[in-house]
Fold this sequence. Notes:
It is a single chain. The chain is an alpha/beta fold. It has two domains: about 1-140, no CATH class; about 145-245, UDP N-Acetylglucosamine Acyltransferase, domain 1, CATH 2.160.10. Helices cover about 40% and strands about 20% of the residues. It has six helices and 18 strands. The strands form four sheets. The protein has a six-stranded mixed sheet with strand order 3-6-11-14-17-18, with no helix packed on it. Strands 2-5-10-13-16 form a five-stranded parallel sheet, with no helix packed on it. A four-stranded parallel sheet has the order 4-7-12-15, with no helix packed on it. Helix 2 runs antiparallel to helix 3 (about 55-90) and helix 3 packs antiparallel against helix 4. The radius of gyration is 22 Å and the shape is flat. Residues about 1-10 have low confidence and may be disordered.
Amino acid sequence: xxxxxxxxxxxxxxxxxxxxxxxxxxxxxxxxxxxxxxxxxxxxxxxxxxxxxxxxxxxxxxxxxxxxxxxxxxxxxxxxxxxxxxxxxxxxxxxxxxxxxxxxxxxxxxxxxxxxxxxxxxxxxxxxxxxxxxxxxxxxxxxxxxxxxxxxxxxxxxxxxxxxxxxxxxxxxxxxxxxxxxxxxxxxxxxxxxxxxxxxxxxxxxxxxxxxxxxxxxxxxxxxxxxxxxxxxxxxxxxxxxxxxxxxxxxxxxxxxxxxxxxxx
Length: 265
């Protein structure tokens, strides 16, 4: 299927419409300055037409395209880091429940930070190598993640997310440490401990803590502030306790029974 940008490792961006209008010029300048190094590189590449034979330039063209794309990504990220640093000095991100009102600094700067991340998030999501895209995304957006983790095309908010080691997060899963609920903005840290497995198309809401070696079934909604016990299986919408992971059997007889039950439906 054709995945929207946010399913290509982008994070779900909520930006207040007034912030979009008010900070449109800085956003355009962010894009503009991100392309300046690319322009200089292409001017230099064009000069090679007077030096190198056309067939060699044609062979080098794919490398040139890949190189300038990564220059664009890195430049956009550097500008993002500088702009975010300035915003952190003005108002540091914090957890809590805040009114959806631009008079509230937490809500206002939350929208500004998301706007700053918008263009870099878009270009990272277009990186053609998935393994490098994931690594670059987590590093660039300061998401704490341990070793040997596996994920594919997921949504992750860039603030207040801590993922342990050997964690599997299934396709199209959303890990949302921030949430707009009616007239409130909720920001709460999500902690996913070691050896956790989260099934496809699940949603982890703000303030959730998932204990070690827990399993979250596919399509599960883990509601805000819920504590998932370690070595346990949860599933459903909303998530409910099913059994201990030690009670799970993956024998051939179990699979045959599942297939037989499905055929009877």
